């Protein structure tokens, strides 16, 4: 159990605050900020690419007013994950020298604009070469062309109508695989027979948008015979990404929540009058029930792969593909030629449960984005595995 909890925590990314970076901003306004901090940043930055002064295209404005406003936005953004250009999310393609076209729409502002045709190219495709070094820059969200993006396609096949900047958030925070990708792989295979052709299917990361849309978004693996709750409408003042997340810092302030929720902190918020995890504890936040059920599900996956598939799995959130083999049952990941051996004894039953587990835990804000839906996914996955390993699941007192 401690390992499972650690894993959950590891999924909530640690913030590395080292700004050893060279940020290439596409947004002209930021030129001035760059010039100011240039010397403190990457010495390899080419000075000639930096525009020292940029005048507004129209005006007149009160210059001091403009400057203060943008400085606040820039410094807020600069501290956020969107600007963290040293992170794996932006450096992954360094060796190749360009961002893979399958990845560019979400891992670079330039790629995002190319994908949506905001640079005048084909809509819905990456046409040009996307250089490495891009981040989620100002021009990703501050782009007049975004107003023409009226719908966003999801990996589940859903096409969802959008307005304004939500088009941007949902483009990138939707994940890359959905339950239907799992269904396609396991369709027709015997449920409990390991199949070496099955590989872990990763929903991808920071999948907030997918969680938020719930059963309607169909990001999870949906078990036959069950209904899944749709989008989490919540309440009008908190109905959009940016009503909770400050768009530059990306942080969520607790005070606005407290107008409706009596809770010390965001993690303590609870409305539900039933305990989902069987603990009977209604004094903790709904987040606690979700984490407990996620830990139970992981324990079930471990027990099932050991007992039914006869090949125990070990989860390690620090490297892809996260699920590894422990065929010799020594409690450590097997290695071959110095490499960790990826788990290759998936059955349809374990694969779909592992997918749901990863989808839920890939979104650290799941309890605020759609607590109902993630509890349903966890519940159904636990029941399915529990029954297969002969556990009296009713006695666990879990609620759906
Ligand atoms: C639909 C948008 C989208 C697409 C397409 C996409 N990614 Fe991502 N990816 C994200 C988001 C959002 C994150 C940020 C997760 C975080 O670090 O919080 C991410 C994170 C990552 C990370 C960092 C994971 C970590 O542990 O920090 C890697 C590596 C990555 N993606 C690789 C890829 C590769 C390779 C491709 C193309 C084959 C790709 N991504 C395509 C949205 C996407
Ligand atoms: C992830 C999307 C996103 C990115 C990236 C982004 N912004 Fe914003 N920005 C917004 C949203 C959303 C608003 C609020 C607009 C509204 O209230 O209608 C906003 C508002 C602003 C405002 C108005 C004042 C304020 O702070 O609310 C300024 C100025 C601004 N942004 C500048 C920038 C600059 C400069 C950058 C790059 C350093 C940047 N933004 C990056 C989404 C973004
Ligand atoms: C072009 C793609 C893109 C767009 C558009 C985008 N994001 Fe992100 N977002 C990312 C990536 C990539 C990361 C992870 C960066 C990292 O790991 O350094 C991220 C990180 C985040 C994080 C923090 C996650 C963490 O690991 O700390 C939040 C919160 C977030 N985005 C919310 C939003 C919201 C809200 C919007 C819309 C206003 C938005 N994003 C628009 C790609 C995008
Ligand atoms: C009801 C408020 C609310 C709404 C609406 C909301 N979020 Fe969140 N989000 C949260 C909370 C709370 C967290 C947990 C992290 C925290 O406490 O800061 C979170 C976490 C995240 C994270 C992970 C941050 C991390 O630390 O890794 C991302 C990414 C994210 N949200 C994106 C979005 C996107 C995109 C949307 C719109 C589809 C959205 N959120 C809508 C409240 C909200
Ligand atoms: C205008 C009132 C209002 C505000 C403001 C508000 N909420 Fe809520 N919240 C609700 C209502 C109503 C529900 C129940 C919704 C439902 O179940 O459909 C709820 C449910 C929740 C739940 C699920 C609780 C459970 O036990 O299922 C979480 C988590 C939550 N809100 C987080 C937040 C966060 C985080 C914020 C601030 C960013 C916030 N809320 C702001 C009204 C609000």
From TrEMBL:
Position of the signal peptide:
1-35
Segments forming domain Cytochrome c7-like: 89-174
Q: Tell me if Signal is a UniProt keyword of this record.
A: yes
Q: What keywords were assigned to this record?
A: Signal
* Name the UniProt record assigns to this protein: Cytochrome c7-like protein
């Amino acid at each position: 159990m401690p390992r499972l909890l650690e894993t959950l925590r590891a999924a909530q990314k640690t913030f590395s605050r080292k700004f050893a970076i060279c940020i290439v901003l596409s947004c002209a306004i930021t030129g001035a900020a760059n010039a100011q901090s240039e010397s403190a940043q990457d010495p390899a930055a080419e000075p000639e690419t930096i525009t020292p002064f940029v005048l507004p295209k129209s005006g007149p404005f009160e210059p001091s007013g403009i400057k203060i406003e943008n400085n606040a936005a820039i410094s807020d953004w600069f501290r956020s994950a969107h600007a963290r250009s040293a992170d794996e999310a932006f450096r992954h393609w360094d060796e190749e020298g360009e961002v893979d076209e399958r990845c560019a729409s979400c891992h670079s502002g330039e790629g995002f604009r190319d994908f949506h045709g905001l640079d005048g190219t084909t809509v819905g495709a990456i046409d040009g070469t996307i250089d490495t070094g891009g981040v989620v820059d100002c021009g990703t969200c501050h782009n007049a062309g975004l107003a023409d993006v009226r719908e966003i396609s999801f990996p589940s096949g859903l096409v969802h109508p959008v307005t304004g900047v939500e088009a941007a958030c949902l483009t990138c925070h939707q994940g890359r695989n959905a339950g239907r990708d799992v269904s396609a792989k396991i369709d027709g295979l015997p449920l409990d027979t390991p199949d070496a052709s099955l590989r872990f299917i990763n929903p991808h990361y920071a999948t907030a948008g997918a969680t938020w849309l719930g059963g309607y978004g169909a990001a999870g693996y949906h078990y036959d015979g069950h209904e899944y709750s749709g989008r989490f409408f919540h309440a009008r003042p908190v109905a959009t990404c940016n009503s909770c997340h400050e768009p530059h810092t990306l942080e969520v302030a607790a005070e606005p929540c407290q107008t409706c929720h009596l809770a010390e902190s965001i993690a303590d918020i609870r409305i539900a009058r039933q305990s989902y995890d069987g603990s009977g504890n209604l004094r903790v936040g709904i987040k606690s029930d979700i984490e407990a059920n996620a830990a139970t599900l992981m324990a079930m996956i471990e027990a099932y792969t050991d007992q039914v598939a006869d090949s125990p799995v070990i989860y390690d959130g620090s490297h892809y593909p996260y699920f590894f083999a422990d065929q010799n049952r020594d409690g450590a990941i097997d290695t071959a030629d110095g490499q960790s051996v990826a788990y290759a004894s998936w059955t349809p039953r374990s694969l779909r449960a592992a997918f749901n587990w990863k989808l839920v835990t890939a979104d650290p804000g799941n309890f605020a984005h759609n607590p109902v839906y993630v509890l349903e996914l966890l519940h159904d996955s636990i029941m399915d595995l529990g029954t297969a390993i002969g556990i009296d699941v009713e006695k666990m007192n879990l609620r759906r």
